[in-house]
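for the writeup, i need someone to sanity check this before i put it in the appendix. the sequnce is what the collaborator sent (i think, or maybe the updated version? ugh). structure was predicted straight from it, no edits. if anything looks off just tell me and ill rerun, i have time this weekend
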Amino acid sequence: MKNALILAGLLLAASVVALGQGYDTMPADAQVLPVGVDGTAYADMELGVRGGTLNVYSIEDPRTWNHHAAQETSTTWFTGRMLRGLTNLDHMTGAIGVDLAKSYEISEDNLVFTFHLRQGIKWSDGVPLTADDVVFTYNDVVLNEDVATNARDGLRLPDGTYPIVEKVDDYTVTITLSTVYRPVLNSLGVLIMPKHKLAQFLHKLNPDVPAGTFNETWTLDTPLEELVGCGPYIPVSYQPNVAVTIERNPYYYAYDAAGTQLPYYDRVVVQIVTNEDVGMLKFRNREIDVYGPRPEDLPILLGEAQGKDFSVLLTDDMAYGTRWILVNQDIGLAEGTDAEKRELYRNVEFRRALAHLLDKETMVQNVLNGLGVPQWSLLSVGSPFYAGRDEYGGPITEADAVWYEYSQEIAAGKLDALGVVDQDGDGWRDLPSGAPLTIELNTNDNTIRIAYCLIIQDDFRAAGLNCNFQVVDFNTLVGDLLNGTGDIIMLGLTGGDEPNGGKNVYTSCGNLNVYRKSQCTEPNEVDLRIDELYDLGASTFDLDEAFAYYKEAQILYSRDVLGYIFLCHLTFNYAYYNYVGNANLASTTSTPAGNNGLLTELVFDKRLAAN
């Protein structure tokens, strides 16, 4: 649920925050991105100029400024630009590389990682960033049980332990593992937070504050001048339901090959809109500069592109992430209600019946205009570990895919066998006891998701299931998921190449295992096997061996767990005004305004260059 100040309609705005003055000269350990340098992944990129404002949009407000208390992309869009980690994805290739660290070494046994931090770099308030901040973030925040953070799951090693993070000197940190952990560099992208600003809010370091205080720190009512970051941008103004403005961090440590400090744009204004239709209208009216079009937008945009001087990038690449419906297997548990409905929802045969009612081909053709694919796996199709391949990184064959044929007949047979039949002649199937069965289907105000849900509602009703669809605020839905209070919810998750990134979702005690949170204390044999497979996949550097483990996990999940029942996903498309330099290099792993934000600091206003 939104912050009470937002609900009250109060304005939380700050004038330009008093940031530091910036570096006098480029730090010796600055990160230099080879923009325009032949022989690099950046060769086709233009050197930009500083200045101007990039306008983008969001359909949701942030819920906090505290990255390690965040559970939703409406928040991490901002915190991911405020902060950086020891490692990060490369802007152009998506490969893991150094970020706050300038280099690292790995011991011969692959158990000790020594990171050397960039010296001379500072937080946005001018305070030096050192190993103390790194050790603080790992030991006192992420690995502190008092802090509710998603990052901890990604750092849990296959033997159940966590890395030991130690300071060697002000600019050197060692991270020691108890066992081999292949995805360690991915996991060490944990965003680093400023000790000098936040240590006071941790009971572990300040016994005068209660345990859990950190979770309520840097909330939306925190004065923006209190926020400190090390990433390219810092929030400077927030008007609920209107806009968030982020401005360049004068102490950001990245530069282009010509020695120009990044980011190129002075500021990014994120306009908060009510839905995707408004976002589309704002793009057509040049109120926003870049846009990820929906399938229904493409005929309009392609027809207007030349006259309005913008471009539409069309690809066959599958965008990362998954779209799904979630059946809340803990429905009514906290309230002591819905015991029979909960028992039904926990029966995998009921969830399989629902899977047979998902007309994915109609969704692809009618909603995505053919620009997408059905999904069945918990991994993105683009991942080399995707189980629709026969080997790691191989061509997609779907030989082992777990498909649920769209069939009203099969679904009806399964529902009948469960005793979910119409007992009172009103046309709707009832619970086995004869009590009415009513399903509430929810998603947020997103036209693709709404279109999916309308198709699902029709097919559920055709099968005799009394399904009522309603649009709900996104942050409210996230709250329902986290609290186990929803019914059937249609949303999505981001994704990437590395399966371990979903460990917090698909293992029995994962922080974002929201389809049955009680599963942590009541795992079955399949749950435990999937937990084991995730650990085995992370325990080997043999990619073929790891692929076999993750393949089994994907098959087991979609066949026997079905916590998330997957739908369809869109191909990657992007639209941008031609005055936005480097926007033509947007990709599935890097967009100017996407959740990864990797191109944000490298796009620029060509009109300023012309002047």
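Residues 1-19 have pLDDT under 50 and may be disordered. The domain at 4-256 is CATH 3.90.76.10 (Dipeptide-binding Protein; domain 1).
thx in advance!!
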